[in-house]
Amino acid sequence: MGKRTAGIHHITAIVGNPQENVDFYAGVLGLRLVKRTINFDDPGTYHLYFGDEAGKPGTIITFFPWPDAYRGKIGDGQVGVTTYAVPKGAMSFWENRLEKFQIPFTKTMRFGEDILAFDDPHGLHLEIVERVEGEKNTWEFGDVTADVAIKGFGGATLLSSQPEKTAELLEKEFGLVRVGEEGDFLRFQSPSDIGNVIDLKRTASGARGKMGAGIVHHIAMRAKDGQDQLEWRGQLAKHGYHITPVKDRNYFTSVYFREHGEILFEIATDPPGFSLDESPDTMGERLMLPEWYEPQRQKIESVLLPIEPRKLD
Description:
By secondary structure, the protein is an alpha+beta fold.
């Protein structure tokens, strides 16, 4: 058997006002703001990371919040839906919580699983599904306790302009196993217990998505370490994918490529992780800058809007 990824490392999206972003993912969904830093390619913009207590791969959603961003458009070449996994028996809590905060939702079923579908304040499509697999998230915030807290990603739904090519990437390059077909969806699974499911819509819409607020920018798959990442890079390049050099993101290293269905993928290393530059107990409390931006701290902080995780219950 060839190389196999453990699954999703993180998902990165574009949103609007940063405090609205923090209020929703921390205040409503109960995730931990594990890192507040900047977009290394655009230092006047936050890069915010939310996940479980430790910020483990498979739990992290990250955001570039641009207060004046235009609303994007969902379409081919994108991650259409981001799915979160919660413990068995927690669905009624999440229905009540969304109602409490007046967040519209719909209930549906896919591959035998009940799904709660809703949008964040900036239009990002989200789902909640109950799963037995995956460790409980011990982070508690407001009324979100460990018994009901989001464990991490249940998975993601991909919208491809060439679904057959994307399916080939998932199986032959990433080593995911095709485990089901239902209606217009194919389901693929990795060996991990979190961030392990990819659903692929197998009919292209013919309408290309447009980047903007409420749109996933890219999806990152996991590499065990730097050597594993280099092996992935070599394999993909050998098979005709145009892949970037390794980029240092401080908390992991990354390579990027756009596959034939136009979806932007990243391969990110599990180490070194988010406690690299601050204590696990205080992660996310202070703006952290890579050393090459530290001399510009005063200027950067003067541009960024203030944010704070708030208990909204």
